[in-house]
Amino acid sequence: MTKNKDLKSRLVIGEKRDGRCEYDEGARDELIRMCLKPGVSIARTAMEHDVNPNQLRKWITRYHQQRMTQPQQNSASGITDGVPIDTPTPVRPSVASETPAFIPVVTAPLAPPAVPQGPSQSLPLMVDRTSCAIAEWRRI
């Protein structure tokens, strides 16, 4: 509980001229990481820290977008313990050996619809009783 109160007090660092709050980036990121844990209610966490839940959701969305655009720094990228390592660049196969992105689809011609050969059978006509009653009423 002390940690939450400490975060709440560190979150707002000032106020802009129009009355909006200015937030500390470190405290904001800590609040976002707290919300990303499983089972944590974003709305409840926002209200406990005097932040609008919609604002917190925007911060979380922006946080996800920033993490997706930043390059992943790991041993596969050629940097280990802060020391660059020379890694061979992967060779891309030639364009001729690649399969095309679109494959043409050929359809077989459709057979003409079958026409009945015998006398045509008439289907019984279903008439609603109310329409018959209206037609009889108009005749009167």
TrEMBL record:
Organism superkingdom: Bacteria
Residue numbers spanned by region Disordered: 66-95
Bias (Polar residues) ranges: 66-78
SUPFAM superfamilies for this protein: Homeodomain-like
InterPro entries noted in UniProt: Homeodomain-like_sf, Transposase_8
Pfam families attached to this UniProt entry: HTH_Tnp_1
Protein name per the record: Transposase IS3/IS911
Annotated source species: Candidatus Burkholderia pumila
